[in-house]
Amino acid sequence: MPKRQLQGTIVSDKGNKTITVLVERKFLHPVYKKTMKSSKKYAAHDENNNGRVGDKVIIEESRPISKNQEMGVDFRLNRRRKATSCSYRKASRQSESRNQKNQSRKPLRNNSRRKI
Q: Domains in the chain, please, with CATH?
């Protein structure tokens, strides 16, 4: 019997030699004929701790490695892209302009002295 293979995205790599992979699938609803999306998380064995959050991987069924691990990483499709310096500069400029707008606002009135 062939081993089941699933494609997903790594959402956690906190465990030692363990990654959590989110596998999404799309299907047509039998009554409403609408495309539905469902997802499931699998704990997979990563022998060399190569996987990082955001990587797309193919996991394959294997023998039980632990209580929750019944999948192993077959191979990594592509790595996530790191933020470039240009996007960092753009984000810092946007935060600076927000800070300037907040400083130009009038301070709130103190209503604690109001007589009742």
A: 5-78 (2.40.50.140)
